[in-house]
């Protein structure tokens, strides 16, 4: 009774202390490396000079452009797929659901090789495109394809959960009021699932922006054409560590800024509902 009274009286139990220590260790594991990077970037690396460098500006511009294009493909392709998986029962649904997650567990380098074998000049799809005069491998389009490949599952997971959380009765009410399915989807289903859709878009965009392995395998590392910021960091490390740190700080800052912006938009969308 004494030990139970002490636990109820507010003194932390050993179990709570252990949980707190593990939680603090998990937080430190995430924050410590990023914090050291930021401090090193501010105190030693010249971030301003890095931003002014044509090398950095070109890779940043390319990263933002390709990740935005990849996000458009992810949302355009992933939204119907997520809705289908959330609302429809069909043979092989479980297999399809599992296969969409494959890029999450597949090593990025393997994904890049798979894309190269498929969309390269000698691949089944790439050969047909090459015959039509379109090359994909080792071009900017290959960067977008690699980013879309790795980011798509993250959006589909979140969007599927969002569609599953929508109260079907509200959609039924919309239908009884004469709204067609497409109007119900736009005016009822999507607004209700918007926080999940926005959250999935955040994660997908961040994954696309930071993509490295599949990009270098399928698109190469050509400055101004396929060299995104993660690849630019690799190049910079070979010549100047401080320059690489500066580029990494810029990439982390851009990622954080867009992440916060998307989170705020998702929160505003959720309150508007």
Number of strands: 0
Query: What form results from the Cα inertia axes?
Result: globular
Mind telling me the CATH class of the largest domain? Mainly Alpha
Topology as a string of helices (H) and strands (E): HHHHHHHHHHHHHH
Low-confidence stretches: none
What is the total domain count? 2
Category by helix and strand content:
mainly alpha
Beta-strand content bin:
under 5%
Helicity, as a percent range: over 70%
Radius of gyration: 23 Å
Keywords:
2 domains, MetI-like fold
Brief summary of the model shown:
With 273 residues, this protein is mainly α. Helix content is 81%, strand content 0%.
Mind sketching the topology for me?
Layout: H1 2-8, H2 14-43, H3 47-52, H4 54-87, H5 93-100, H6 102-105, H7 108-119, H8 124-131, H9 140-165, H10 168-176, H11 181-209, H12 213-218, H13 229-239, H14 241-272
